[in-house]
Design goal:
alpha/beta; 7-stranded mixed sheet; 5-stranded mixed sheet; elongated; 14 strands
């Protein structure tokens, strides 16, 4: 399928995309003048692709004035969001396990900045709730000198037993890193103690977790006096292996951020009342980072 959208404005391009009736996996070719490509920019076309659950493929130069941009429709049913529940919804054989957020620049950059903001090198005990295969710990390991990383204690907890077993093997040589398969709703069954950094990326918003009460319980029972927190709130969906910008809310076919912003505001207000400096950063994952005001 091919369309000629040379010398069209943004409204006309959007109208064409809205009218498309294409199947999962189908590729659409669209002719643009090179001046159009320069005007909208490739970033604009990547955004356009995401709006309609597509991905932008490599462009083809047609002639000295025209470039063909190719867009492939994603398989919208291929998503861990559509998977059934249970502890192995996020296990090694799941669609979720294939995802590596730390390979996405928009996540990695802001996560690293959050770690810098709380001065990760000064922390002694780090707890990660929803660690899965350990990606967030690996970023810390890559950021810090080995002698500093090895003196810190890391505890990662996840409901998926197969993901935890994978993480244990991956960090086998790091005796200071411990992984536990357990339900976050029952943390009281574990003798965890307190931590000077607690991390949770995209986990506390799970449907089986009561967000407000769980967040307050974690703060009250597991955060050391003066400790820091990094919380990641998904503002994206994973479809066919692609990170698609925009939070999905029930009863809406389009991105709607009210629930995400409500949870962020609750945490920010709560922590500010506890004398924390709180910043909100990020894009596809909104990152709430809090450190104690000295």
């Amino acid at each position: 399928m091919r369309f000629d959208l040379r010398d069209k404005n943004a409204s006309e391009v959007l109208k064409c995309f809205k009218s498309m009736d294409i199947k999962d996996g189908e590729i659409v070719e669209i002719e643009f003048f090179d001046s159009d490509v320069e005007r909208f920019g490739y970033r604009g076309f990547v955004d356009l692709a995401q709006l309609f659950f597509m991905k932008l493929l490599s462009p083809i130069k047609q002639d000295e004035t025209t470039t063909i941009l190719r867009f492939q429709k994603l398989n919208t049913s291929n998503s861990f969001h559509e998977s059934s529940g249970g502890c192995e919804k996020y296990g090694v054989d799941s669609e979720f396990f294939k995802i590596d957020k730390t390979e996405e620049f928009s996540f990695l950059y802001h996560y690293q900045k959050a770690l810098e903001f709380i001065d990760i090198g000064s922390k002694k005990r780090v707890l990660n709730l929803g660690i899965n295969r350990g990606d967030e710990f690996r970023v810390i390991k890559e950021m810090l000198p080995h002698e500093l990383f090895s003196k810190m204690e890391f505890v990662g907890i996840d409901y998926s037993s197969s993901a935890i077993e994978y993480a244990k093997r991956d960090f086998l040589e790091d005796k200071n890193v411990r992984f536990i398969s357990h339900d976050i709703n029952s943390l009281g069954e574990l003798d965890l103690g307190e931590f000077d950094l607690i991390i949770s990326i995209g986990t506390l918003q799970s449907s089986n977790i009561e967000f407000n009460s769980t967040f307050m319980s974690i703060y009250q029972n597991y955060l050391q006096n003066g400790g820091a927190m990094i919380l990641g709130f998904p503002n994206c969906r994973w479809i066919d292996g692609e990170m698609i910008y925009g939070a999905k809310a029930p009863n809406y076919a389009f991105s709607e951020m009210s629930l995400v912003l409500k949870d962020i505001y609750f945490c920010k207000k709560y922590l500010q009342q506890k004398k924390y400096r709180v910043i909100i950063t990020g894009k596809d994952y909104l990152c709430l980072t809090a450190r104690k005001i000295i």
